[in-house]
Every structure is written in structure tokens, then in C-alpha cells.
């Protein structure tokens, strides 16, 4: 609810309407059941007395989906003439004028016809939310801007219809509609997704098993990461309890931290950490702890700079901190960046050090209870 007030001509004060709540149903590909799930939840809301309307729906003539629309009011689309042809788009103004409690909007990433008031359907949704109306919408994972390049590399298909990641992050709720690749293939072969003439080309292209597996993982990871970000933000907003809460917010997305020194095997550690990060589709960091009592020689400084450049080549973030207690600094950075995997090299310790001092590895194991620690052997 907004805290400001609007002054009307009759000197009365009206509180502006609250912003509507946005629930997004996301899936790995067409046919997983996003629209059906959205309709199913909307029908339950209608039974509970909520005023529900259909703003825009694409059933693709699927009988089960069509059946779910029975009894739901449809807002007639707007008509736009373009090149002598008549096109239809969602009628945002009519939806706002109707003032339902909840509106259903399919195909969130859709690009509107030239001549429409807004260029993208998600902008129409933003306008509806600003008018205080709740929205259920659907989208596939390949339409996220941050993933479009990755999806093109995996599938060979260039996605034109995109939505900003901020839309997903701002949503009040994101629901993953998930099925196995095998189930999706069965639906495709049974003609439940596309007409018969499109089945074989789809199997040879977008619906290849390898593509479906990769897209499914993308969808699950993206939503998991989104949940984690919101948990962290919520903890940060609770000022006095932030530290206590952050300790209890577990990381869902993997994060890799490689700890290097002036030892020559540091480059090998970075490469190994980069392989882990690529395999897990995880953010990647490299940490160098500089002892303030030790002045780096030219050779050591060059070594650190080389490690930094290699880290950046692997799209990682290089971190350099100063501290006398290496274990404490590593633990502090790991907790601050919510690291889940730490990569270390074998440390060379004398016989007396092994007897009288605790190893770096054991110190980290005591400090980082929820973090996996990988020890990479030194090359002979």
C-alpha cells in the first residue's frame, strides 16, 4: 500500500490503489502444462468468490485446456489494422476498465503488433499491476534475457521474444511447471502440443532430448536462484536480525571459490575451479589473501596478476584481501559471498608445523560447516 495521498478537486483525500500481485508460471518448453496449471488455480480462486477474467489465452486447441476455460469471462481483444490486415492483441484498457480482482495473461514474452500502445505484453501486464489488479501469467525459460545466448548455444535457435530478468525477480510468486523430458516427448508424439505436421521437425530441433534436459535444468536453477536472492534480500531488510537470519538461509545455487597463493600450482587450481563452475553452471570466484607483513616480490606480484587475468578469462571474479590469518579471511569471504564449494591446493608444512599447529584445511572445516572443501593435489 502506498503511503502518499492524492488530492481531489473536492478536497477529499484518496489513497492510491495497491499494486497488484504477479504470479508467474514458468516451464522448460511449450507443452509442459503452464496454461492448464494457471487455469486450474484460477478456477479454484473463482470458486472461492474471486472475480477472475481471461485477458489473453492461447489454448492451441488442446481439449483439456479448452475445458478449463468454461465459466470464465473473456475480455474481448483489441483490433489493430496493419498492412490491410486485422490483428488482435490483449485489450489492456478494457481489462483496467473492467477492474477484476484477477486476470490471466498467457505468453508473457509476446511482442505486440506495431501500432499497439505498448511494444511488449509484459509492459501491458506492468500497467495492469499498477492499476491494482492481480495477474497470473505464463512464460518459458528460454525467454529470459540473461539466458537467451545460452539457449541459442544449446539449441541453435535464436529467441526473439524476451522479458527482462527483473520481471521474474519482482514477481510475488514464481511456480515451476515441471515434467520429465520423456513425458513431454510422449505429449508431442500424441499430438497434444503441435499439429501432426509439426511433430517430426520439432523432435529434430527444439524438442531433442538433450535440449529438453538442459532447458529443464535451466528452469529449475533459475527459479531456485531467484528464491535464494529473495531470501537474502528479506534477511537484509530485517536490520537487527539480518545476521541471525542470513546464517539460516541456505544456498540453493552453487558458488565456487578457488583460494590461491604464490605457489606455482595456483594456475592449475583456477583451471580446475573453472571446470567445476562450468559443470555446475555456477558463479566463480578466485581469492588471494595477502599478508600485510609480507611485501610481495616482483615475481610474486606478477604471479598474482597472471592469476587475475586467467580468472577473468574464465569469466570469474578476482578477490584480493589483506589479513594475517588466512583461514579467517577465507572463511569471512566464503560466508559473505555465500560460497558452497571451496577449492584449495595441498599446503607444504614442516614436521614441527604438523605437530604444533592446526592445518588450514582443518581450520576451514571448523569454520565452514555447510561448505564442501576440495583439496587438489600438487603436481610433482
TrEMBL record:
SUPFAM superfamilies: Adenine nucleotide alpha hydrolases-like. GO terms for molecular function: phosphorelay sensor kinase activity. Pfam families: KdpD. Residues 18-227 form the Signal transduction histidine kinase osmosensitive K+ channel sensor N-terminal domain. One of its GO terms (cellular component) is cytoplasm. This is Sensor histidine kinase KdpD. The keyword Kinase applies. Keywords: Kinase, Transferase, Two-component regulatory system. InterPro entries: Histidine_kinase_KdpD, P-loop_NTPase, Rossmann-like_a/b/a_fold, Sig_transdc_His_kinase_KdpD_N.
Amino acid at each position: 500500500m502506498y503511503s502518499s495521498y492524492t488530492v481531489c478537486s473536492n478536497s477529499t483525500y484518496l489513497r492510491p490503489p495497491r499494486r497488484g500481485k504477479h504470479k508467474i508460471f514458468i516451464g522448460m518448453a511449450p507443452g509442459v502444462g503452464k496454461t492448464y496449471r494457471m487455469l486450474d488455480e484460477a478456477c479454484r480462486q473463482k470458486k472461492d468468490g474471486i472475480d477472475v477474467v481471461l485477458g489473453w489465452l492461447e489454448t492451441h486447441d488442446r481439449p483439456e485446456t479448452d475445458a478449463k476455460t468454461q465459466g470464465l469471462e473473456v475480455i474481448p481483444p483489441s483490433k489493430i489494422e496493419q498492412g490491410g490486415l486485422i490483428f488482435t492483441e490483449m485489450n489492456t484498457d478494457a481489462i483496467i476498465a473492467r477492474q477484476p480482482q484477477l486476470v490471466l495473461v498467457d505468453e508473457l514474452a509476446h511482442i505486440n503488433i506495431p501500432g499497439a500502445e505498448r511494444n511488449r505484453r509484459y509492459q501491458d501486464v506492468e500497467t495492469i499491476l499498477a492499476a491494482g489488479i492481480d495477474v497470473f501469467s505464463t512464460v518459458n525459460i528460454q525467454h529470459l534475457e540473461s539466458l537467451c545466448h545460452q539457449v541459442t548455444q544449446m539449441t541453435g535457435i535464436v529467441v526473439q521474444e524476451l522479458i527482462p530478468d527483473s520481471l521474474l525477480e519482482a514477481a510475488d510468486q514464481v511456480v515451476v511447471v515441471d515434467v520429465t523430458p520423456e513425458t513431454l516427448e510422449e505429449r508431442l508424439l500424441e499430438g497434444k502440443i503441435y499439429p501432426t505436421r509439426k511433430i517430426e521437425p520439432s523432435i529434430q530441433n527444439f524438442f531433442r532430448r538433450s535440449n529438453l534436459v538442459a532447458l529443464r535444468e535451466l528452469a529449475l536453477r533459475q527459479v531456485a536462484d531467484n528464491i535464494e536472492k529473495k531470501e537474502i534480500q528479506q534477511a537484509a531488510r530485517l536490520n537487527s536480525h539480518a545476521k541471525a537470519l542470513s546464517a539460516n538461509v541456505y544456498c540453493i545455487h552453487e558458488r565456487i571459490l578457488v583460494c590461491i597463493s604464490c605457489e606455482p600450482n595456483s594456475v592449475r587450481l583456477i583451471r580446475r575451479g573453472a571446470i567445476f563452475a562450468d559443470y555446475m553452471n555456477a558463479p566463480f570466484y578466485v581469492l588471494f589473501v595477502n599478508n600485510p607483513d609480507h611485501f610481495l616480490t616482483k615475481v610474486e606480484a606478477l604471479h598474482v596478476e597472471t592469476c587475475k587475468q586467467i580468472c577473468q578469462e574464465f569469466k570469474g571474479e578476482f578477490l584480493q584481501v589483506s589479513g594475517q590469518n588466512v583461514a579467517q579471511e577465507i572463511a569471512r569471504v566464503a560466508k559473505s559471498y555465500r560460497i558452497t564449494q571451496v577449492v584449495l591446493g595441498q599446503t607444504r608444512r614442516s614436521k614441527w608445523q604438523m605437530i604444533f599447529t592446526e592445518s588450514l584445511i582443518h581450520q576451514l572445516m571448523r569454520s565452514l560447516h555447510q561448505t564442501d572443501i576440495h583439496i587438489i593435489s600438487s603436481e610433482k
